Amino acid sequence: MTKRKTKAGWVRGALVGGLAAAGAAVAAQRWAASRGSAAGRGISLPRGRAVITGASAGIGEEFARQLAAAGFDLTLVARRAERLQALADELSAAHGIRADVWPADLADEADVAALGQALAAADDLVLLVNNAGFGTRGEFIEVELERTLDMIRVHVLATVTLCRAAAPGMIARGGGAIINVSSIAAFFPSAGGANYGATKAYLNAFSEALAAELQATGVVVQALCPGFTTTEFHDVGDYQNFDRGQIPAPLWMPAREVVAESLAALGGGRVIVVPGAKYRAIVAAANSPLGNPIRQAARAVRGRWRK
Ligand SMILES: NC(=O)c1ccc[n+]([C@@H]2O[C@H](COP(=O)([O-])OP(=O)(O)OC[C@H]3O[C@@H](n4cnc5c(N)ncnc54)[C@H](OP(=O)(O)O)[C@@H]3O)[C@@H](O)[C@H]2O)c1
């Protein structure tokens, strides 16, 4: 389905949804009754549509695979339309779900606004995964300013805009979930990652506060904080020719495990979700009296790929 058709479909859905708006209580009952019924994968959400940004690769693609297997319809967002379409075709054929694509550059204000409008109009949206992101190499003054600002646009501005667009409808329907993909870097401000870590720290603080504000609405919010994850992140942009061997092998996690832990934790009351026992131990230690040496060690690891 093309972006134009997808938009039309969402608007049609919104019209149908509008007729049902007066029945918000009924929707809330349906929501409560259908919790946990999504293919029995421990995902406490009713069936509906999941919108995933950055779905053309890595963690976002893995969210699409696991959510399709659990019976969710999907809207896949990223710049590489052909990859999205191939994934949508594969998952709709394999799982009998409806998968749409929405090509967009989330560093582009107009693209983000258009997607936000579609989210606000969608009457079947149950899950928003703000996952799109990228890294830069080099210290703050070495990275081109426009790349730094694009990172803030993609990680922060797009996420905030899409949360603002999606949440009111979820509240009106009696529930939903938002996953903002942050990073372990949020806990370790490090040379070579000044802007990256800061954008992810923003996502953690924002998600915690938003979760508190939405507590009574049935809408849950999670900030997912993965450590090193085997995706295309370290193959694209500034990271081309990056040697993964610089990072101790036990620290790499497969995207499959990261996503499974995220979905399993949804609705369990935790906002900040750190996948992997090793990483949970590192974060706990960083918050203990041993915090300073741990942070220094993390900075040393992080510093290995400074330019
Ligand atoms: N891999 C790790 O070690 C790691 C660790 C902690 C957190 N994370 C976070 O996990 C998230 C996903 O990263 P990943 O590891 O899965 O990396 P990845 O394999 O490189 O995937 C990144 C995704 O983001 C999309 N994207 C990037 N810039 C975009 C833009 N301007 N507009 C729209 N989409 C854009 C890419 O799609 P297109 O290029 O097709 O647009 C791609 O689908 C990111 O937020 C990242 O910060 C990753």
State the end-to-end CA separation.
Answer: 42 Å
User: What's the name of the CATH homologous superfamily?
Assistant: NAD(P)-binding Rossmann-like Domain
Structural class: alpha/beta
Based on CA atoms alone, the radius of gyration comes out at 19 Å
Uncertain residue segments: 4-41
Secondary structure tally, helices: 10
Instruction: Tell me roughly what share of residues is in helical segments.
Output: 40-55%
Q: What's the CATH first level?
A: Alpha Beta
Mean pLDDT: 86
Strand content: 5-15%
Helix and strand run? HHEHEHEHEHEHEEEHEHH
Q: Strand sequence of the main sheet, in spatial order?
A: 3-2-1-4-5-6-9
Q: How many separate domains make up the residues?
A: 1
List keywords for this structure.
single chain; about 300 residues; alpha/beta; Rossmann fold; two-stranded parallel sheet; 10 helices; about 15% strand; binds NADP nicotinamide-adenine-dinucleotide phosphate
